[in-house]
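Check this.
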Amino acid sequence: MFVINMPSHKIMLLFFFISFLHSATTQAQPVYTNSSCSGGAFAANSSFQSDLTNLLSSLASNKTANNDFYNTTVHRGRNTVYGLFMCRGDVTLQLCHQCVVDATNNIRSLCNVSKEAVIWYEECMVRYSDRYFFSSVNTRPSQCGANTNNVANNQTGFINVLNATMNKAADEAAKPGMGKNFATEEASLQFQTLYCLVQCTPDLSPQGCRTCLRDAIGDLFNCSDRKIGGRVLYPSCNVRYELFIFYNSSGKPAPPPLPAPFPATHIGKTRNIVIAVASVACAGLLFCLVYYFLRSLIRKRRRAELRQKYFGEESNTLEPLQFSLATIEAATNRFSEENCLGQGGFGQVYKGILSNGQEIAVKRLSKGSGQGAAEFKNEVLLIARLQHRNLVTLLGFCVEDQEKILIYEYVPNKSLDYFLFGSQENRRLTWEERYEIIRGVARGILYLHEYSRLKIIHRDLKPSNILLDNEMNPKISDFGLARMVAINENEGNTRRIVGTYGYMPPEYAMFGLYSEKSDVFSFGVIVLEIISGKKNASCHDESQYADSLLSYTWNQWSNEKLFEMLDSNLKEMECYNEVSRCIQIGLLCVQRHPDSRPSMATIVSYLGNDSIQLPHPQQPAFFLRARRVITSASREYSSINEMSMSDFFPR
């Protein structure tokens, strides 16, 4: 399906002329929707049947032709028949009268012996009963219908917009003095417009009208959940929504035709002028449609070529994730400084709001940068296939006009390092929050190693790559340096060492060997940083030869002085045993030899079951002794966020 990007005033002009040409050749006809027959049966040739015939004839008579709502009663002897009709608030009186005539004729045949009946058309409703129902809210019988197609993207956002728009229309229709108790509302969605209509019978009070519409809107969400169109029909009110315009957009009936202002001798000349003008206008509109269609097709083809250039054979599967640059610029106010969230090695990150109200984080690769192109491709191909509550969600990407952009869910509470090492004096993490962050990060890494469709090694786990949502749940981000490995492989190697100093295990820093245990090492460093509130590279005394966090923690563990290494905000707590267990897990993760480190599955079990006995940790890697730094690597370490090319292997 193609979306024609045409200005709204041109679209309205198109509909006007199409309607003009259509009305010149055909007369609009009422459209039957549904009916309901109830209330028991009356005897043939009874007085009730005679009264009902009189009532329906009265509703369809010429004396009601200038009304859009009318109720009446026929009473003879012990029988009383009540009836009314209501036309939709935007139809002409001529179409209204024709609809009532058709409805009264059809209701006789559809409900020929029923004492109660209601029939609905697109343009009107006719109802009768042997019981009094005027000025009362009646929600039964009811009819519900929905489009067969589902909303394709962002169903939650669509439902929120629909709910707000329907209730806004209901509030407007139920205002005192509205007369028709009729209202329409429109709302903008991404590339589309939502159209809503509500109406009550005018004999209802404002409170009764709002009550009826409230119930109808509730039923609407039950029967048309996640559909692109739906309606609910009650005897006292009705509601409907679509993604196309189905009513007179002015909300008012068209005015009656004016008398001809010209003498009869000029009618033929005037007709020719109108036909000529309409023909020229239609030709112009047809040209505009073709132009915008071709331009949309060219843009779509250009985007497909760019996807092919960056992602090769997998480009077709990524089409639903591709955003246009115009959409991103509109969401971020053209990358304004006010929307800038921060700067990283990749480029700048901006906050944005899509047209449907969804908040996003936009990660923009610096133009002309030699770094990041491979990582951009790597991150899209990897994270687009991952779904886990502890991984940041990739919503899409954009490659256009030399721009390389990643679009993520917006995570409002920044990153973990902001709370551990930043200036958050008024918001310190409690132990309960820290413990849940540790467990959440562990579950996210376990998913990458064991449960995702791909076996993934992140290679750059650190607090700045762990984002926190509104409830302080952790979400692992930045997969530019991640590697896919075959499901039966346990490790890989690279000639270029990338990552962040302080979080790389020795086998990776020395030989370029990476495995699942590389992420385990990084996780152990993060656990110790969360507990101590200090960075791995930070000093812990005034000495020039201060230890790293790993050796410092090992010394405190060996000397049974764990209390001294805790963040000052944790020293008054009552969960000392739980903290001690987490420190032991952290030390197990940072042991020198990869085979000695536990797997993430084992770590998650340690964190979930206090009864499991933990092994005693060995001396950590990069253990620093006084006055001499003992490391196994002589090479220079890579800087933070340095980029590298990534190789891909089948799972």
